[in-house]
Amino acid sequence: MNTNKQQKENEIILAIETSCDETAAAVVQGGQEVLSNVVASQIESHQRFGGVVPELASRHHTENITFVIEEAMEKANITFEQLDAVAVTEGPGLVGALLVGVNAAKAVAYAHQLPLLPVHHISGHIQAARLLRPWRYPALSLVVSGGHTELILLKDEGEYEVIGQTRDDAAGEAYDKVARTLELPYPGGPQIDRLAEKGNKTLDLPIAWLESDSFDFSFSGLKSAVINTLHNAKQRGETIRPEDMAASFQHSVVTVLTEKTKRAASQHHVQQVVVAGGVAANNGLRSALRDAFSDSDIELTIPPLSLCTDNAAMIGAAAHVQWKKQHTANWDLNGVPGLALT
Amino acid sequence: MKMLAIDTSTHVMSVGVGEDNKLLGEYTTNFKKNHSVRLMPAIDHLLQELNIQPADLDGIAVAKGPGSYTGVRIGITTAKSMAWALNIPVYAVSSLAVLAQNAKYFSGFISPFMDARRGQVYTGLYKADNGVVQLVEKDRIILLDDWLRLLKDKDKPVLFLGQDWDMHEHSIKEALQDKAWNGDFSSATPRTGELLQLAYTQGAPLSAHEVVPEYTQLTEAEKKWQAANKGKKKHE
Ligand SMILES: [Zn+2]
């Protein structure tokens, strides 16, 4: 990188995130203090299609990107002279969407000859925890979102080891598919969560434990079981309360997520468990995890909702680790839809 | 007034820098390789050669489409984000108008065009007058057959410019016979020297926020949705 800013610990980073359908920018200081966190959601625009339309998401990002960055800079009350670096989500995500953020970040960094920090989207979700309190290692992170269900071990700062992952659908994907089956509006996850609170676990749906020593997950069987149960009930002329189906489905998902997290935490003697990703906004999951760790020495960190769903403050937090390791990118940085975490 | 110009709307990537009435430098390549990876290094290379700092720039010109959705977005996003960060205006110019500039001393009609799949092309009709190219029929996406019918009625020579001549040569020659001309490989290549010329002479300065691509059509999902919901509103 053609810049020689002094390496400091309370650096100010402008972070940009456009991996899916949120155009987001934030200013974060020292990987800890959020000076601003702006998210322009596109949900309304995609809702009528029942899911994110990638080309439409890219178009909205292009329309919104400078407005969002400007608002983040203004809310933080920061000038370009005060900025130490520009960070951006490199991947994974929708390629066309990622490209808008990456090219905007490069242009802003280039204009002011600032270092460019590439950030992995999932490391962003995980590092959102640093905005609440300092890490205690070794730590474990349960990452649950529309595209991810993973158990990740952190032995030290920024060192990620995937010890478990989904073999088919991500948890969030299962939520969306079941919501569609129940004819709930998009996005389905929060809808099921809300219904589940009003229902009872009356139905016996499968829980995929897999091999006894495995930290992997599987949700496709559960999804099929929901569809079959509804179908069979209809054939018999019976009705199933959507509230009860939601509660039963959510019970299966939350039980396996909580149990495996607890088991992995004790097996790896971790000091802290961090829950990350959009599904971490799910109330059923939040309370089950709180119960599971209530009488344990392990510190449980569940970020507030605004830091669970996609945002750029988490990218700024993860960029702090990149900053300290001096992992900068060159001007040829590209968006990488299938970027690996490790 | 120092101006940077960017065109990534087709496989051709062109970056240029102009100062008042002078082209200081231009870097143009014509091969299929990722614009997202190559654009910023190209800008950096050219500005360094010219010993120009980003902060020395007074404006940024960009080809706004039509063209490849992703290519146009890379150019537009880079141009508007850099312009916003430097607090300078953007001059957004039609990608087809940039191509038409290559024929500014041709006496007939000019049809810059790009293949738009499924028998369609992005095109518009231009005409040069003493080196100044003017728009006759606005840019659009249209079935090539429909476009050729429209041109045939004009009964004048038409010069076709673009990278997709080979793909459509047969249909064009069949429809227009000896009235159809095609440009040589140089005039078929969009170049930022011409984009700068347009920006300096006809360009209207826009604030970075206002600059958006010219796609000439909705997304597939929106088109399908509109078709499926046609008339629904009226009954509501
Ligand atoms: Zn995410």
TrEMBL record, chain A:
GO terms for molecular function: iron ion binding; tRNA N(6)-L-threonylcarbamoyladenine synthase activity. Binds 1 Fe(2+) ion per subunit. It is found in: Cytoplasm. It comes from the Bacteria. Residues 33-316 form the Gcp-like domain. It is an enzyme of class 2 (transferase). It catalyses: L-threonylcarbamoyladenylate + adenosine(37) in tRNA = N(6)-L-threonylcarbamoyladenosine(37) in tRNA + AMP + H(+). GO terms for cellular component: cytoplasm. SUPFAM superfamilies: Actin-like ATPase domain (SSF53067). One of its GO terms (biological process) is tRNA threonylcarbamoyladenosine modification. Its EC number is 2.3.1.234. Substrate binds at V143, V144, S145, G146, G147, D176, G189, D193, N282. Its cofactor is Fe(2+). Pfam families: TsaD. Its main location: cytoplasm. HAMAP family: TsaD (MF_01445). Belongs to the KAE1 / TsaD family. Required for the formation of a threonylcarbamoyl group on adenosine at position 37 (t(6)A37) in tRNAs that read codons beginning with adenine. Is involved in the transfer of the threonylcarbamoyl moiety of threonylcarbamoyl-AMP (TC-AMP) to the N6 group of A37, together with TsaE and TsaB. TsaD likely plays a direct catalytic role in this reaction. This is tRNA N6-adenosine threonylcarbamoyltransferase. The lineage of its organism: Bacteria, Bacillati, Bacillota, Bacilli, Bacillales. The gene is tsaD.
From TrEMBL, chain B:
InterPro entries: ATPase_NBD (IPR043129), Gcp-like_dom (IPR000905), T6A_TsaB (IPR022496). GO terms for cellular component: cytosol. It comes from the Bacteria. One of its GO terms (biological process) is tRNA threonylcarbamoyladenosine modification. Residues 32-174 form the Gcp-like domain. Pfam families: TsaD (PF00814). This is tRNA threonylcarbamoyladenosine biosynthesis protein TsaB.
